Amino acid sequence: MTRIYSKYTDNALLKISRIIMSYCVVFFFFHFLQLNAFSQTQSDAYVLTLPPGVLEPIIPEDNPLTKGKIDLGKILFFDKRLSADDTISCATCHDQEKGFADGRVIAVGIKERKGTRNSPTVLNAAFFDTQFWDGRVITLEEQAKQPIINPNEMGMPSHDALVEKISNISEYKTAFQAIFGTEKITIDHIARAIASFERTLISFNAPFDRFIAGEKDAISASAQRGWKLFQGKARCITCHEFNRSYPFFSNNKFHNVGVAMKGKDFEFLARKAASSGADPSALVQEEASAELGRYLVTKEPKDIGAFKTSGLRNIALTAPFMHDGSESTLESVVEFYNKGGVPNPNLDGGIRPLNLSEDEKKDLVVFMKSLTSDDLAGLGITIK
């Protein structure tokens, strides 16, 4: 009995100590920024540093990048007080050490509630046309708002509830006054700050980039063979497009490749979702309807089971893979496509068996590992 009591006491103390540590880190960081960043105004423009020739991401006119806003967004991104029980932050599911994903099959939120999809990385998210696996929103500002009120993620009862909570924290009140010029904090202010920080999470400088720039020994002979396969026999580049101005290995489109298409009556699920009239952000909270993918947004039958083509930069850091986390390794991903996906009525026409040899499959994996950036530590993320 004593041992049981001790075990639960120790667990409780550990949890409390972690919460206290989180608060202390945020408080210290706030104090630092109050002395530095928050003395700045919206006119202190911040310019993204991009490789030559890369197109700049679209930044909303009502949310120009400023140093102070980025610093505020960074604090919010790591602050667990944005969740209902102070246990989940944006960084919980988007961890720097895991390529800004979380290493889980499916995202886990407050009270250990499981979500319905794998957490995608936020690295280079600023360059994508849409956000989330189903592309249900376009901007990072809109994306930042949704996890906050998702009951399986951060679990706040409403955006107003978060605004009230943040408004009662004196450090935040000071910060928002300095950055946005008003004492009245809004959910749009919170989302704009988080989105501003996320736009700075940019990753290039992988061995492959140096290879493309002319450094022929930057990647191995195996990776070079994999790159040729990627463009040719393996047909990866059909969806994972690459060019010098948009080097993110995605065509920003949605495809049904057969993931999670076994054993479900998708026509029934589609009719049910369409007749419900519910918003995609609500439908995605249900495990069955979440597998409808892009259909939740468009209600077009052709989009049943279609999901966004993810970028491949730093892919070696973000296992498990696919929207449902069903593939645990890059090797299993290659094998999935080599077999031609999973047949279903909406399977993309470009998905068919590849007939790759074992050596060719290995070369593809080696190539994808060459897309891991050397400068992730340079992003300056120090809060965990």
SSE order, as H and E? HHHHHHHHHEHHHHEHH
Indicate the CATH architecture of the largest domain: Orthogonal Bundle
Distance between the termini: 36 Å
Question: How many separate domains?
Answer: 2
Give the integer mean of the pLDDT values: 89
The percentage helix is: 25-40%
- Say how many strands there are: 2
| Alpha-beta classification | mainly alpha
CATH homologous superfamily assignment of the largest domain: Cytochrome c-like domain
Widest sheet: strand order?
1-2
- What percent of residues are in strands? under 5%
What is the C-alpha radius of gyration, as a whole number of Å?
22 Å
| Low-pLDDT regions | 1-14, 380-384
CATH topology of the largest domain: Cytochrome Bc1 Complex, Chain D, domain 2
User: With helices defined by DSSP (H or I, 4 residues minimum), what is the helix count?
Assistant: 15
| Quaternary structure state of the chains depicted | single chain
**Class of the largest domain in CATH?**
Mainly Alpha
How would you describe the shape? globular
How would you characterize the largest beta sheet?
2 strands, antiparallel
